[in-house]
């Protein structure tokens, strides 16, 4: 499964804010309850739904 898009993460946050349960959101979006919880925790802490991780691309060369 691929990573959730920013839009999908926003939908999860919005649905949770209007009362949807973590379990129901996990079923609807086809992700684990842990994923939904991590998104909500990140949103509460930083106000953002994006991760600071960059998970694509080649690693940078640090020396010649």
If you had to describe this structure to a student in words, what would you say it looks like?
Helices cover about 55% and strands about 0% of the residues. It is mostly helical and about 60 residues long. The chain has a domain at about 5-45. Helix 1 crosses helix 3 (about 35-45). The longest helix is centred in the middle third of the chain and has 14 residues, at about 35-45. The model has no long low-confidence stretch (mean pLDDT about 85).
Short description:
It comes from Cryptotermes secundus. It is found in: Nucleus. 53% of the residues lie in helices and 0% in strands.
Topology, pairings included?
Elements: H1 6-17, H2 22-29, H3 33-46
Helix pairs in contact: 1-3, 2-3
Protein name: Tc3 transposase DNA binding domain-containing protein
Pfam families: HTH_23
Subcellular location: Nucleus
Taking the sheet with the most strands, its summary is: none
Give the low-pLDDT segments. Answer: none
Q: Level of helix content? A: 40-55%
Strand content: under 5%
Along the chain, the helix and strand elements come as HHH
Number of helices: 3
**DSSP, total strands:** 0
What is the SS-derived class?
Answer: mainly alpha
Mean pLDDT reading: 84
The N- and C-terminal alpha carbons lie at a distance of 36 Å
| Shape field | elongated
Pfam family, one: HTH_23
Main location: nucleus
Subcellular location: Nucleus
InterPro entries: Homeodomain-like_sf, WH-like_DNA-bd_sf
């Amino acid at each position: 499964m691929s990573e959730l898009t920013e839009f999908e993460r926003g939908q999860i946050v919005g649905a949770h804010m209007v009362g949807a349960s973590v379990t129901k959101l996990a079923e609807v979006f086809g992700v684990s309850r842990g994923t939904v919880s991590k998104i909500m925790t990140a949103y509460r802490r930083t106000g953002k739904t994006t991760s600071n991780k960059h998970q694509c691309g080649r690693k940078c060369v640090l020396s010649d």
